[in-house]
Design goal:
alpha+beta; 16 helices; about 450 residues
Length: about 450
């Protein structure tokens, strides 16, 4: 792609095995994106990021903001997975599953359906104003905006249940936040896929520029077999040159407008449209397919690809270690968390009978998908617990807060500050428990008497 003033691209439609594969991946990814917010488990949305209530529902698990370290684990895991995948398979993610690629491909398909194939679209844009042109342009942009709104609705549905959004939409009760995010993502999708398109891959996205660091001569890429294709015959008989007839279809179908025959370029997103186009031409000419094909730089040059490489082993080892750690942390994750706050207004109270009491606030958070009944205990101190309810019932995804008093007899006083543990454990399954250390304070006079 030449630098300078940007020229609008008119990607030509193509059929072939990789085009069919891309449609299958697109259908699967859009199906997950649009349908996942409607999936429910035990009467609630299976995947919901409830920011106002600070709860993140991921299928049978409920995560809380204080568990943000799981997100750090996930991000590191995904980064290393990206390194591994890119080193092995190049930019297959870009060509098949990247949202930018998927949505832009949908927009181009809509444009092709309404305005016609490449030459028809070029002629329509060059033609002067007419009612037919105005209708086609209006219909195209209307369909684009409707699709953009659908994607915005699906995205926001991961944060606000879709049934709630629909009810608010039809009753006119959308909140200002709902309106802002729906509007923002609608305009973002529309502006990106309708006008920017390949510029998002070429300018702000850094992935293509990482190729020099992540690729090697054994990485899977799309390449042109110059030994077989050159010199180009320009439609002449095979005896007069290579297999390439310089039909330029590989350039016409490219969504980023590059000529793959010029070698590996960072603009290439590995969508394989050029392979389908070239294979179609080779088939019509009775020549072997694969002039443009998937392969490594080594294999395209006639060598042999080395699959097992040191960098891949390193990535795989790191990825496996992180995966084991993540699985272990999640499997050992307790479905309950406990917070203990001392009463700061009165550090201790002395009763008429000489007993000392300390007041605490207990917060029990049930992070499980079902309700639990917990008993409250104090370990490491011989004190009586005075609380309104014990055991307590904590509903799924809720925080139960209560105040309690610990009362210590004068005969049990040994130190001015005693350290002990508050423990809450499930009545039915004591293995499900949580503990927090706290302190019990007594006046100095009580210790002096001892």
């Amino acid at each position: 792609m030449e630098t300078g003033k940007r020229e609008k691209l008119y990607p030509k439609g193509v059929r072939g095995r990789f085009r069919h594969l891309r449609w299958a991946v697109t259908a699967a990814s859009l199906g997950v994106f649009f349908l996942l917010p409607w999936l429910t488990i035990d009467g609630r949305q299976a995947l919901l990021f409830d920011i106002p209530n600070r709860k993140f529902y991921i299928f049978n698990l409920i995560f809380w903001p204080q568990e943000v370290y799981y997100l750090a684990f996930l991000l590191v895991f995904l980064v290393i997975a990206l390194f591994l995948f890119t080193a092995v398979a190049g930019r297959l993610w870009c060509g098949y599953a990247c949202p930018q690629t998927v949505f832009t491909d949908i927009f181009i398909s809509i444009e092709r359906f309404i305005e016609g194939e490449r030459n028809e679209r070029i002629a329509l844009d060059k033609a002067g104003f007419s009612n037919g042109k105005a209708v086609k342009k209006a219909v195209k942009h209307a369909v684009w905006i409707i699709f953009s709104f659908a994607t915005a609705f699906a995205f926001v549905s991961f944060f606000v249940p879709p049934a709630v959004l629909i009810e608010r939409l039809f009753t006119g009760n959308l909140t200002s936040a709902n309106l802002f995010w729906l509007g923002l993502f609608t305009l973002t999708t529309y502006g990106d896929c309708a006008f920017l398109r390949e510029l998002m891959c070429l300018v702000p996205c850094p992935y293509g520029r990482f190729q020099s660091a992540l690729f090697d001569t054994d990485t899977l890429i799309i390449g042109y077999d110059s030994k077989r294709g050159e010199p180009r015959t320009h439609g002449k008989k095979k005896e007069s040159g290579g297999d390439c007839v310089d039909c330029t279809l590989c350039v016409q179908v490219c969504p980023t407008g590059i000529d793959i025959r010029n070698g590996l370029q960072y603009e290439c997103i590995a969508c394989a449209q050029c392979i389908d186009a070239c294979d179609t031409v080779m088939g019509k000419l009775g020549r072997p397919k694969g002039l443009i094909r998937y392969g490594s730089l080594k294999s395209i040059a006639g060598g042999e690809t080395k699959v097992l490489r040191p960098r891949l082993v390193l990535y795989a080892v790191c990825l496996t270690a992180l995966l084991i750690m993540m699985v272990y942390k999640v499997s050992m994750r307790s479905p309950i968390d406990l917070e203990v706050l001392r009463d700061r207004s009165a550090l201790f109270q002395t009763g008429k009978d000489g007993r000392i009491s300390n007041i605490y606030t207990i917060k029990a958070m049930n992070m499980d998908s079902r309700d639990h009944q917990y008993s409250i205990k104090a370990k490491g101190i011989k004190a009586e617990i005075i609380v309104g309810k014990n055991p307590i019932t904590v509903k799924s995804g809720e925080v139960y807060q209560t105040s309690l008093a610990l009362i210590l007899d004068g005969d049990e006083i040994e130190n001015r500050v005693s350290r002990f543990d508050f423990i809450i454990e499930d009545v039915e399954d004591p293995e499900i428990s949580a503990k927090r250390q706290s302190t019990f304070l007594v006046p100095e006079t009580s210790v002096a008497k001892r």
